[in-house]
Amino acid sequence: MSEADPEPAPTTAVSRAKDHSPWNWLLFIPIVVPLVTPLFNTDSPRLFGFPVFYWLQLAFVLLGVATTTLVYQMTKKRG
Questions:
Q1: What does the pLDDT look like over 54-67, one tens digit per residue?
Q2: Which pTM does this prediction carry?
Q3: Would you say residue 17 lies in a domain?
Q4: How many domains does the chain have?
Q5: Is the confidence at residue 46, as pLDDT, over 80?
Q6: CB 26 within 8 A of CB 38
Q7: Contact in structure between 56 and 42 (CB atoms under 8 Å)
Q8: Does the pLDDT at position 68 exceed 60?
Q9: What's the chain look like in SS3?
Q10: In this structure, is residue 37 part of a structural domain?
Q11: How far is 79 from 65, CA to CA, in rounded Å?
Q12: Which residues, including other chains, have CB under 8 Å from residue 34's CB and lie 6 or more apart?
């Protein structure tokens, strides 16, 4: 390559998510469900002596993990 030939400038393109899977909409479930305050705006039922607020927070975490795992398994590239 001679000095007269300029190097091609690296192209920078804005990367966008190419996965427009409808499975991704399920990720709103663990965001919206904890916002429904009537679910845990009470003291009973108790589970192992803990009020509903505490054990329901753990259930929300498990819901988030389960939803994220499901969406990942359904949208990952196979092969």
A1: 899 999 999 999 99
A2: 0.69
A3: no
A4: 1
A5: yes
A6: no
A7: no
A8: yes
A9: CCCCCCCCCCCCCCCCCCCCCHHHHHHHHHHHHHHCHHHCCCCCCCECCECHHHHHHHHHHHHHHHHHHHHHHHHCCCC
A10: yes
A11: 25
A12: 57, 60
